[in-house]
């Protein structure tokens, strides 16, 4: 498989004939391998339907949906965005469902010769670290909280966000962190003994994986990307305990007025035993397992 990650965002599953009914899906980028597999499996059972996929950061897709982006189903890497769509009357009632629990990994280029674990990020060879932008990407938020949990970041008490240092992870106003991680966290443990250190931000977790692979040689990524051979062959990774970072409860929902039969059928297929098995094979923790 090529070492290539789509930066965006239109990926069309060419399933079915030209006159086939279409299900338009917008999704978090950690699904960029799993969703095409789900779409193919669904199409094999529904030859009159094709699934069109768009990948990006959960937060940016949410904003676009509130501004009129045409889509039928939205998959988010964090539950808050589908909940907000419900609250704003932009989702079909009763269709928000959990599909996975996100797992975070520290990924390192195999050529570094380092054991992938939190302390490895202090190594002088690690002068850049790829993370998703925590402003709008849930995996970026999880990355920051993981680094904080292992003492590699410490919240600044002089942050411009009121009471920021005392807020729990789930209450941090992430959308207001416009100054970059180091405007709000002290990264001294990551900088000590190095000629320099910088965070390199991907717009979504797929782009972050591309940055880690192509340039930074280190990144905090999603497990469903790390297990793919495009990353597992050139790199090594450590799976973080779920309690060590912001909990990523991942939900999907049908958008308001989009509950056509083919859309409902795909929505149900994702939660079926076959759909859940595909997600599990792709590196996701599925609800109830």
From TrEMBL:
What SUPFAM superfamilies does its record include?
A: Periplasmic binding protein-like II (SSF53850)
Q: Where is the signal peptide?
A: 1-20
Q: What InterPro entries would the database entry show?
A: AvModA-like_subst-bd, ModA, ModA/WtpA
Gene3D superfamilies on file: Periplasmic binding protein-like II (3.40.190.10)
Query: What CDD domains does its record include?
Result: PBP2_AvModA
Give the keywords, sorted.
Answer: Metal-binding, Signal
Note the superkingdom of the native organism: Bacteria
The protein's matches in PANTHER family, at most eight in alphabetical order, are given as:
MOLYBDATE-BINDING PERIPLASMIC PROTEIN, TUNGSTATE_MOLYBDATE_CHROMATE-BINDING PROTEIN MODA
Similarity remark = Belongs to the bacterial solute-binding protein ModA family.
State what protein this is by name: Molybdenum ABC transporter, periplasmic molybdenum-binding protein ModA
According to its UniProt entry, this protein's organism is Thermus aquaticus (strain ATCC BAA-2747 / Y51MC23)
């Amino acid at each position: 498989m090529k070492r290539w990650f789509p930066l965006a965002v239109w990926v069309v599953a060419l399933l079915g004939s030209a006159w086939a009914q279409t299900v338009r899906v917008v999704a978090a980028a950690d699904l960029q391998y799993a969703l095409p597999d789900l779409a193919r499996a669904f199409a094999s059972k529904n030859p009159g339907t094709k699934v069109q996929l768009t990948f990006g950061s959960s937060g940016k897709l949410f904003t676009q949906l509130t501004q009129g982006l045409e889509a039928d189903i939205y998959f988010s890497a964090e539950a808050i965005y589908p909940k907000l769509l419900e609250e704003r009357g932009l989702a079909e009632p009763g269709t928000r469902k959990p599909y996975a629990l996100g797992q975070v990994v520290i990924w390192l280029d195999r050529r570094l010769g380092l054991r992938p674990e939190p302390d490895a990020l202090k190594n002088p060879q690690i002068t850049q670290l790829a993370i998703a932008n925590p402003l709008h990407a849930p995996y970026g938020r999880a990355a920051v909280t993981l680094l904080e949990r292992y003492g590699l970041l410490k919240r600044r008490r002089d942050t411009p966000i009121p009471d920021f240092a005392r807020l729990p992870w789930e209450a941090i106003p992430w959308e207001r962190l416009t100054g970059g991680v180091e405007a709000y966290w002290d990264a001294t443990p990551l900088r000590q003994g190095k000629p320099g250190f910088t965070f390199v931000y991907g717009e979504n977790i797929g782009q972050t994986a591309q940055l880690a692979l192509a340039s930074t040689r280190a990144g905090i990524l999603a497990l469903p990307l790390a297990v793919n051979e495009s990353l597992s062959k050139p790199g090594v990774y450590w799976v973080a305990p779920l309690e060590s970072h912001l909990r990523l409860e991942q939900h999907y929902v049908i958008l308001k007025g989009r509950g056509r039969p083919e859309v409902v059928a795909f929505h149900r297929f994702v939660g079926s035993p076959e759909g859940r098995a595909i997600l599990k094979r792709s590196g996701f923790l599925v609800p109830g397992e």
